[in-house]
Amino acid sequence: MRSMVRFLIGPLLLIQLSTFNSSSQVPPPREARVGDVAIGVVIYEYQDELRLDMRPCSREPDKQILLFRYPYKKTAAGSVECSSGTYDRVQVVQQSNGGQGYSPPRRGGVDAP
Questions:
Q1: Among 14, 30, 56, 80, which has the minimal tally of Cβ within 10 Å of its Cβ?
Q2: d(Cα 113, Cα 105) in Å, to the nearest integer?
Q3: Cβ contact 45:73 at 8 Å
């Protein structure tokens, strides 16, 4: 029975591995520098890190991801309509640390304009 399972699973695993295309993955994020400003869709935000997709309607290889580290200022910037749906956009400004530690963003993560 085990040899039969290996016989059936082996070719399927090879097919799965051969169809994997590394060029279809999202490129690594570029780290924001002090003063950088960008508008996009937040794809990840936790504690002191925010990842912003500056091309939310593009396919994976064409995406541009920017990584912001606290302190940064985030404000609402309307919405964008893509074929996959409508997404809220934000403007993010990378600020200097000034020697302060992490403190969570206020009001649900978006500062009032």
A1: 14
A2: 14
A3: no
* CA pair distance 63, 53, nearest whole angstrom: 7
| Residue 111, both tokens | 């500062």
Omega before residue 11 within 30° of 0, cis: no
Tell me the C-alpha distance between 29 and 49, whole Å: 12
d(CA 92, CA 94) in angstroms, rounded, equals 7
DSSP state string for 52-78: EES-TTS-GGG--EEEEESSEEEEEEE
CA 3, chain centre distance (Å): 43
Q: What is the pTM of this model?
A: 0.65
Q: What residues pair up with 5 in beta bridges, in sequence order?
A: none
